[in-house]
Amino acid sequence: MTILSLSGVAVAAPLLLLIDEPWSFALAVLGAGAPLIGLSVLVRQLGRAAGELRASVGDGATARKDGSARQLLADIRYVAARHHALGHRLNHRHPVTGLPTREPFLDALAAPDLSGAEGVLGVMRVVDYDRLAAFDQAEADGMLATLAVRMRGALRAGRPLAQVDRDCFAIWFAGAEGRELAGGEMQAIAYVLAQDVGREGFKLTPSVEMGAALCPDDARDPTTLLTRALAASQKGASAAGQKLRFFSADSSAAARARFSLEQSLRKAVQRDELLLHFQPVVDLVAGRLIGAEALLRWRHPERGLVPPDAFIPVLEEAGMMDEVGLWVLNTACREAKAWTEHGLSGLKMAVNLSAGQFHDPVLSQTIARTLELHRLEPQALEVELTETTAMEDAERTRQTLTRLRDLGVSVAIDDFGAGYSNLSYLKNLPFSKLKIDREFVTDVHLRRDSHAICSALVALAKGLDMTVLAEGVEQREEVEALTLIGCGMFQGYFFAKPMPAEQFIECVSDPDWLGLIASPARRRGAALQQRINQ
Which residues are within 8 A (CB) of 518 and not within 5 positions of it... i.e. 6 or more apart? Predict the structure, then answer.
């Protein structure tokens, strides 16, 4: 057994393997820890030296054999040293974009002639990279390479550019005028990056987060400067055209608070701090309760109930929404089955689906298994999705909705009218219910524009053989105005706030609950009786 040392890596290999199988020996060397660069060069060197050694062994010349062996070892050490040097240099370039990576970029900024010098460090994060890489790494890398080329072309010559994270680029704007230059140039780059990327049949419109930090105002050392530029960028993804965000103490505090909230949410999932509240849905035409919407809530051990708009966006950005959404679906179905055991039959449970859940190719199978697990009829479940989610891929949406319809599960389009509504997809997709967004419901009796929109949406839904529901109703006048234009289904604080399961069952089990709320005469009588009793 011969022991060789290559750039500090000890390799044990039989001499005969080295002579007869130089490829196998080379792979053994590389597998032991040498960088996987220049493999063919290494093998050629080994092959030539091994050939000489075979010849010397063949003619029996011991001295020549020893000399060839020594030369072989010298060749191996030389190639390994070159190998190590090349690997060190290439490891400081991103393998996809070819840009300098974080360490050499920060080292350059820390050089004596730049350290602490005036300037701006800007960062641009590609928001869509992780989502795309989750199902197509090659496509994600192709997008990244294309964007790097675009950035090089858009930047002024000589402007330092690096890839400091898997989805994040950094740019250094030197000099006192850096702040003005950074704003204009990064704005222009954001516009360039926002152009479609992808092959024929698959197009993606990238979006970016932009942030910057000033040197020396915000920090002098490059590492802290980069950290603060990243903190400034993380106020939310922006469409191209939004202004560059500069670091401030407020943005840093907000980033810290958001990170803390995300960590608490991860623990909340593990500690069963999440729960569901249920808001009744009523049909005033039939004069009865027809179901409820399951709404996610978080009971923090110190903060109490955290508002949904404070934590649901964090769940989505942290990639936890799909996992939590599956928990919501399972818990809601279990509760719907419990309703039947309390005599509340014929009710429909509405559950919101995240974009990730809806685009899951096995969604219909997941829902079918969940219904079977809880022995719940498919007609007792309704899933809701936003029109933004539905419009991402119309053909895939149509296929998914068809499978759900065949299963017996109804599908509602939520918050309709709040986005850029597309009537053609509404016509071609098999939705069963249209929910009018509360933006149009609020003060509908006072606002002519809202009244006109609600009238049109009610007529549209009926023309497409869909039921229509007004969500977010809070005033009796809103209910009466919407009833007059043909809307009979309602959900909102006027009837009941979302409530825990036990309270929901107790509330809706009261035979007088809906009558007292829905009938003006009964409400006035109840109010008069209350005054008499006082």
Answer: 282, 284, 287, 495
